[in-house]
Design a protein that fits this description.
about 70 residues, transmembrane helix, mainly alpha, membrane, globular, transmembrane
Length: about 70
């Protein structure tokens, strides 16, 4: 149960960071593509266990670092 809440928060953060980074006014537009990606990943438990955290943790961290670099040099 705790895993569900952690992944939900990570996905929420990833969607908001991506919306901010790409200057999308409504983050709701990114929810469906993210949900479809996650839904397709449910086909295998191995993929869910190892790929989903990359989408929900790794990508937001990379986007955050890109945002910091962009702010520093602009």
């Amino acid at each position: 149960m705790a895993f569900f809440f952690k992944i939900s928060i990570y996905c929420f953060a990833a969607i908001n960071v991506a919306a901010h980074l790409f200057k999308i006014e409504k983050p709701n537009k990114l929810v469906l593509p993210t949900g479809i990606t996650i839904e397709h990943l449910e086909e295998g438990a191995f993929i869910i266990r190892y790929i989903l955290p990359i989408f929900c943790v790794g990508i937001p961290v990379i986007l955050f670092l890109v945002d910091l670099i962009r702010k520093r040099f602009s």
